[in-house]
Write a structure and sequence with these properties.
The chain starts with a strand and ends in a 12-residue tail after the last strand. Helix 1 packs across helix 2. It has two domains: 224 residues, Jelly Rolls (Sandwich), CATH 2.60.120; 75 residues, Acetamidase/Formamidase-like domains (Endonuclease I-creI), CATH 3.10.28. Helix content is 10%, strand content 36%. By secondary structure, it is mostly beta strands. The longest helix has 20 residues. The strands form six sheets. It has a six-stranded mixed β-sheet, with no helix packed on it. It is globular, with a radius of gyration of 20 Å.
Length: 317
C-alpha cells in the first residue's frame, strides 16, 4: 500500500545541487504533501507595497521544497508526477521587476499588485475583471546531472522553471531522471498565469499540494512531457477572444510586438494603465505561435480571453 509523506515547510533549497540533503525518501507510487513558500520566500507579504521590491534579497528567491529521493530511481528512468490536489493559501502577488520580463526595456520601474484569493475562485484585478484561479507549480524538476549550485532559472531537459500553466490538478508531468534517486523538487507556485508569463510573474502564491511520484522504466524521454485529463483552460469557453499579432523574422521580437499591441489594446479599450495592462497580460493572455512554416516571416499571436471581463465587454479597437 502506498504511503503518504510530508515535506516540512523549512525543507527548502535555492539551487539545483546533487549535494543537497534530502527532505524525505519515498518509494515509487507514494504520495507527498508539500506546503510551499511563495517565490520571494516570504519577503513579499499581503501588506507589502512597491517599495518592498527594492529590498528583496535575491539569494532567497525561488525556494524549492525538497529534494525528494525516490528510491530505485536511476538515470534513464522517467518520473511521473501526478498533481492530485493543489490550492492556494488565500493570497498572492504579481510584479514588474526591473530588468526582467518580455518588455524589460519598455517597463523600467518596479510595480506590485497584491491579490486576495480567499474566495478560491478568482483574483479580482478590478471590479469588472476577474481572473480564474488555476494553481500550478511554476518549477518542478529532478536534479540535473552533475549540478552544483546551479541556479533555478533557466529550465532544462530535467524540468525546472518551466512555468507551464497546464500542470494543474489532474495533470501528470513526466521528467527524465538524471541522477540516482531523482531528487525531485517543486516550488514557484502560481495561482494564475497566461502562456508566456510575459512580465516575469504570474500570481505568485504560497501553495498546498498532494503529488504522487511513480517511476517508469520504459522508453527514455528526451525532455519533459505531460498529460492533461481535460480541455485547455475550460473557463475561457464562456467567452470569446481578442487577438493581436507580431510579424517578423525573429519569433522573440514578434512576441514582443504582439504583446505591445495587446497592452495598447487593453489600455485603450479598458482604461488600464500601461503597468496594469502588462501585468494583466502576464496573468491571462496566451502567447501562441500562429505560423512558423513561412521561412523568415513568422506570426506570434497574443490571445486575450474575454471571459475575464465580468460585464461581458469586448472592448473597442
Amino acid at each position: 500500500m502506498a504511503a503518504t509523506h510530508y515535506v516540512a515547510r523549512d525543507k527548502v533549497h535555492f539551487t539545483w545541487d546533487v549535494r543537497h540533503e534530502p527532505a524525505v525518501g519515498i518509494e515509487s507510487g507514494d504520495v507527498v504533501i508539500v506546503r510551499t513558500r511563495d517565490v520571494s520566500d516570504g519577503q513579499i507579504t499581503p501588506a507589502s507595497s512597491t517599495a518592498t521590491l527594492s529590498t528583496l534579497d535575491w539569494k532567497r528567491v525561488y525556494p524549492l521544497a525538497g529534494p525528494i529521493v525516490v528510491r530505485g530511481a536511476r538515470p534513464g528512468d522517467t518520473l511521473a508526477i501526478e498533481i492530485l490536489d493543489i490550492h492556494t493559501e488565500g493570497w498572492g502577488w504579481s510584479a514588474i521587476l526591473p530588468g526582467l520580463g518580455l518588455l524589460a526595456d519598455d517597463f523600467k520601474e518596479p510595480y506590485l499588485r497584491v491579490f486576495d484569493l480567499s474566495d478560491g475562485d478568482a483574483a479580482h484585478f478590478r471590479e469588472d475583471i476577474a481572473i480564474p484561479i488555476e494553481p500550478f507549480f511554476g518549477t518542478m524538476g529532478v536534479c540535473p546531472a552533475g549540478a552544483v549550485e546551479r541556479p533555478v532559472m533557466p529550465p532544462g531537459t530535467f524540468g525546472g522553471n518551466m512555468d507551464t500553466r497546464q500542470l494543474t490538478r489532474g495533470a501528470t508531468l513526466y521528467l527524465p531522471v538524471q541522477v540516482e534517486g531523482a531528487l525531485f523538487s517543486c516550488g514557484d507556485a502560481h495561482a494564475a498565469q497566461g502562456d508566456g508569463e510575459v512580465c516575469v510573474t504570474g500570481i505568485e502564491a504560497p501553495m498546498y499540494a498532494a503529488l504522487r511520484l511513480t517511476l517508469q522504466h520504459g522508453p527514455k524521454i528526451p525532455a519533459p512531457q505531460f498529460l492533461m485529463p481535460g480541455p485547455l483552460a475550460p473557463w475561457v469557453n464562456d467567452g470569446g477572444w481578442y487577438g493581436t499579432t507580431g510579424v517578423g523574422g525573429d519569433v522573440y521580437r514578434a512576441a514582443q510586438d504582439a504583446l505591445r499591441a495587446m497592452i495598447a489594446h487593453l489600455s485603450t479599450a479598458y482604461g488600464l494603465s500601461g503597468e496594469d495592462a502588462y501585468v494583466l497580460a502576464s496573468l491571462c493572455v496566451d502567447l501562441k505561435i500562429s505560423e512558423i512554416v513561412d521561412a523568415g516571416q513568422y506570426i506570434v499571436s497574443a490571445l486575450l480571453p474575454l471571459a475575464v471581463f465580468r460585464n461581458g465587454a469586448q472592448g473597442a479597437i
